[in-house]
Design a protein that fits this description.
The chain has 362 residues and is an alpha+beta fold. It has helices spanning 36-44, 62-65, 74-79, 82-108, 114-128, 134-139, 148-165, 170-182, 192-195, 203-209, 212-220, 227-235, 256-271, 282-296, 299-311; strands at 2-5, 19-20, 26-28, 49-52, 317-320, 325-332, 335-343, 346-349, 358-361.
Length: 362
């Protein structure tokens, strides 16, 4: 094993240790045989040295040169991996169990055991690879069920990851994780025909559905749980500019924990498939957050989220509005929704070409 400067990397070298960013996100796994794309990915994270098995590249055979895997995108490779298949199975199983627990709490008066409810979330977090892997997994589950219970697990995982990125104390991370998991529990008390509707809700139905926040709060207000968790249930549709509901709170009346769950909820809601629409491209959501985020959310929450979420897409294949496809090789810090994309031999900087945009991650 040798420590080698990044500017001396060449295709064919074998990574001998997992490569992480300074904030603990996985860049490449141990055992990866580097190609040009991998080297660009490493350089994009401003890393200086990595450990390799030897400084002599392995020679690829003709069979390896034509391996169909070479033509798969990062997303396609991940979906074929054992780790992703296992994670998908486990999160679906845990969503079913969460459904049972929520119904027992809402309909049968079962006690609300926060520790027991959140234990599966921490298991999924570890199984995904921590902050390094959670979004890789969730980005590729976007065609999965849009049920309340899967959404609750997603929001809990995203909230946990965001709180970890913010380097909040462990006890606060636990509260955030629980707040994300329970934020929509009030939907268990809403009319089933609205929850299961296959089309977009009407304006009247939207107003009815808004009651889920107050009904959820009424359900838990007398439970012996952290008040910040209760606030997440009541306030996860409140915004700093006062435009949210049900209380039209503004400014510091919305605490940091709630803001974390709110951002996580909106991101998952918009980027997930719904029965009446396809998933919205994450870069469209990031762009919207860039335009409105500072006014609507805690600045530390939204800036931490945006800076990190954009970087989770490095090396992913995307489609532009022109139909071109390419791989993200660099994220522009001042224009997070407009990275540099390598299309064939051309480097397209979306921050300097406003007519181009990313329409899908593929």
């Amino acid at each position: 094993m040798k420590l080698l400067a990044v500017d001396k990397l060449v295709p064919g070298l074998i990574v001998s240790e997992n490569i992480y960013t300074i904030d603990d996100r996985l860049v490449l796994a141990k055992g990866t045989v580097l190609d040009e794309k991998d080297i660009l990915r490493i350089k994009s994270h401003s890393l200086y040295n990595i450990f390799v098995e030897d400084d002599k590249p392995v020679e690829r055979t003709e069979k390896e040169e034509t391996n169909p895997e070479d033509f798969l995108s990062y997303s396609e490779k991940l979906k074929n991996s054992e780790g992703f298949i296992r994670f998908k199975r486990d999160i679906e199983e845990k969503a079913k169990k969460l459904e049972e627990s929520f119904k027992m709490i809402a309909n049968d008066g079962a006690p609300l055991d926060v520790e027991k409810l959140t234990e599966p979330v921490f298991h999924l977090f570890v199984e995904a690879g921590g902050t390094a892997g959670v979004f890789d997994m969730l980005h590729n589950l976007r065609d999965n069920s849009d049920a309340v219970f899967m959404h609750s697990l997603n929001v809990s995982l995203i909230s946990n990851t965001l709180a970890t990125w913010m380097r909040l104390p462990e006890d606060v991370v636990q509260v955030v994780t629980a707040g994300g998991l329970l934020h929509d529990i009030g939907k268990m008390l809403m009319p089933p025909e609205l929850l299961n509707k296959k089309a977009a809700l009407t304006e009247y139905e939207e107003r009815v559905m808004r009651d889920h926040v107050t009904k959820g709060y009424e359900l838990v207000k007398n439970e012996d749980i952290d008040q910040r968790i209760k606030n997440c249930i009541l306030m996860h549709h409140e915004f700093k500019d006062g435009s949210g509901y049900p209380l039209h709170l503004s400014g510091d009346k919305i605490d940091e924990v709630v803001s974390i769950v709110t951002v996580s909820n909106i991101y998952d809601e918009m980027t997930s498939r719904r029965t009446y629409r396809a998933p919205i491209c994450p870069f469209t959501v990031i762009s919207q957050f860039e335009k409105e985020g500072i006014n609507k959310f805690d600045p530390n929450v939204i800036m931490t989220f945006l800076g990190n979420i954009a970087n989770t897409f490095i090396a992913n294949r995307v489609m532009l509005n022109t139909g071109q496809t390419g791989e993200i090789i660099f994220v522009n810090a001042d224009h997070l929704s407009r990275p540099v994309v390598k299309c064939g031999e051309n480097y397209v900087d979306l921050s300097s070409n406003k007519s181009l945009s990313i329409v899908a991650v593929i």
